Amino acid sequence: MNYSDRIQRFQAQITGKADLVFLPISTDLEYLTGVPRDIPNYGRTMHPGAWLEGAWLTPHKAPILLLPRMTAEFGGLNQIQGIEIRVLGDWDDPAQLVKDILTGFKLPSSPLVAISDQTTGETTVSFQQIVPDARFISATDLLRPLRVIKSEEEIAVMRRAGAVTEAAFADVIANLKHGMTELDLISEVDYQLRRHGSLGPSFTTSLYNSGPNHPLLFGQRLKTWPRVLTPPVSILFDFGAVLDGFCYDFGRTVSFGEPPEEFQRVHKLVMASQAAGIAALKSGTATTTQVDAAARKVIADAGYGEAFRHRLGHGIGMDVHEPPFLTVGDETPLQEGMLFTIEPSITQFSSFSSRVEDVVVARPNGGEPLTRGWQELIIID
Question: Which residue of 123, 233, 319, 336 has the fewest CB atoms within a 10 Å radius of its CB?
């Protein structure tokens, strides 16, 4: 990726809109400079002075990456090329280091400071103690126009992330057998993702399983993980790989045991709904709401409208969920190079469910899916 070009385009974007920009270690920073994010933790990891951690830049001054020593050394970020790095010692004063940076930037009084949406409250409060008259806006909003349209190079990375995801899924399917628990399946997915080259799962790997003797439970992992999956049950996969900073999102449906007619009907409807959504993803002519409506109509006309419980899809790229969204009320005109998930589903609490999900590029003649495998219902006898 040409990060120098991205920085220059962003500096042009913020000229006249912000005097200073702060981006913590985050998606925004990785997109702009290539400084990588780490695998996320459930609990927060802290180092002395971590509130200053990130890049500081202006419309006319290149980014300076400030790092606590522990992040720089043990995170390996002190080896990054192409960006000026300054390291805070364990017992140095972070406020003084920031003051030194700001002096070199020669900010006006009452500067307008753009901060990433992922900036912590600690950083904002600490900065305002140094510059009490600072005013804040969203740097993420300023960066969004650059991130929302993917270049063909970025689409190629997502295509490779999709290939990793499908390769992992193929090996998951080969290891499925009746009597496994949901946790067995999740552990297998996460293992296969890493084995095939992913940094890890792009989000928490999820399953939505249901059947006549297997009630669907949303958001209760400690209850669902130990449950034994025995026929008849529908197993709905939702997961994705991480590759070169980009996140994939993928879904397919598996039947443990021969699927009854109701299950087959539900699955065919979901696949038809996705096909309608992909066909409607026409850049230059359609809006996000229109795509959602085209896919939703297939399921609603068949009498399952209430079981399609969520938006059709979302923008995706270096974050799993990015604006715009394929949903009622989002009237964003489609532009070529936008990436979306197309993920219709029918989820039933006491019967069979089905879902499918692929990442799709908006094109003038309709969407281009980046993954195409397993169009038929997967059956594990």
Answer: 336
Distances (CA, A) of 291 to 105, 225, 230, 365: 46, 34, 36, 13
Residues of the chain with CATH 3.40.350.10: 3-146
Residue 42 has what pLDDT? Answer: 86
Residue ranges for the chain with pLDDT beneath 50: none
| Cβ-contact 273, 295 below 8 angstroms | yes
60, containing H or E segment: none
Instruction: For residue range 269-315, list pLDDT tens digits in order.
Output: 999 999 999 999 999 999 999 999 999 999 999 999 999 999 999 99
Domain 3-146 classified CATH 1.10.10.10?
Answer: no
Domain 149-380 has CATH 3.40.50.300: no
DSSP letter for each residue of 344-356 = -EE--SSS--EE-
**Token pair 């290149």: residue:** 62
Distance from first CA to last CA of the chain, Å, rounded? 46
Q: With contact defined as beta carbons under 8 Å apart, do 253 and 356 qualify?
A: yes
Report the alpha-carbon distance of residue 339 to residue 320 in Å, rounded. 11
Where exactly does CATH 3.90.230.10 map onto the chain? 149-380
Is the separation of the CB atoms in 136 and 165 below 8 Å? no
Which of 277, 266, 279 has its CA nearest to residue 305? 266
Residues 14-56: pLDDT tens digits?
A: 999 999 999 999 999 999 999 999 988 888 888 889 999 999 9
Beta bridge pairs of residue 214: 211
Give the three-class secondary structure for 21. strand
pLDDT at 172: 98
The confidence score (pLDDT) of residue 47 equals: 85
Query: Rounded CA gap, 225 and 248, in Å?
Result: 23
Do residues 53 and 94 touch, judged by C-beta distance below 8 A? no
Neighbours of 120 (CB within 10 A): 15
